[in-house]
Amino acid sequence: xxxxxxxxxxxxxxxxxxxxxxxxxxxxxxxxxxxxxxxxxxxxxxxxxxxxxxxxxxxxxxxxxxxxxxxxxxxxxxxxxxxxxxxxxxxxxxxxxxxxxxxxxxxxxxxxxxxxxxxxxxxxxxxxxxxxxxxxxxxxxxxxxxxxxxxxxxxxxxxxxxxxxxxxxxxxxxxxxxxxxxxxxxxxxxxxxxxxxxxxxxxxxxxxxxxxxxxxxxxxxxxxxxxxxxxxxxxxxxxxxxxxxxxxxxxxxxxxxxxxxxxxxxxxxxxxxxxxxx
Length: 278
Known about the structure:
Elements: H1 19-26, H2 30-33, E1 46-50, H3 56-65, E2 70-75, H4 78-86, E3 93-97, E4 110-116, H5 125-134, E5 136-147, E6 153-155, H6 159-174, H7 185-191, E7 195-206, H8 209-224, H9 226-234, H10 240-254, E8 260-271
Parallel strand pairs: 1-2, 1-4, 2-3, 4-5
Antiparallel strand pairs: 5-8, 6-8, 7-8
Helix pairs in contact: 6-10, 8-10
């Protein structure tokens, strides 16, 4: 059982906003992360990036639509939003601290909305998408992309990495999220009232030595961060020495000359019905 029935499930962001996490998120680009959406965008659009994090994808979206358009990024972390805004010089881009459950925008304000790796962390992803639909104009687009942890596979087999994957599932679900969100996106988008779904997937693979080292080092650090480690211990899902063993396993795997790690992301582009109805 992933989360004890006696555990009070409360929505927590499993990754947290430690500098290690934020730096990894800042390496993401619109060219890769939003590739399934970019052909649908046009110059002059008004776009909402919900769950924008440090804004690297947000900035790419702003560049893609040109100076006649506007991109608004929202995130519920004041520190992350402040850091993103401080480095921003684009005239067609702005950031706000806000919850995706309660967006500070009028109905029918945007031509498109984009969410990257956010729905997997939400206790009610359909409610969030309904709120996103509210601020979209009739006929506007929504695009979402989320990892599917259930597709994660590695070689050669390391018990510590398998333990990490099982533990991550447990902690994420006790935090109110759904780590296998990628496969659930079509369902959630439909339930939120969007139509004309286009469903795709893409993969991240780490096989070259530098890629393996960066990926393994990232997760060795992240599993040991208080946000994850202490939550796992609090829930009774792991002990401190087990967390240490997982971190060590990641580092050992990185040294495997034939090491391989891969997983898929689910991707959906859909539209708000032209008549505005749900």
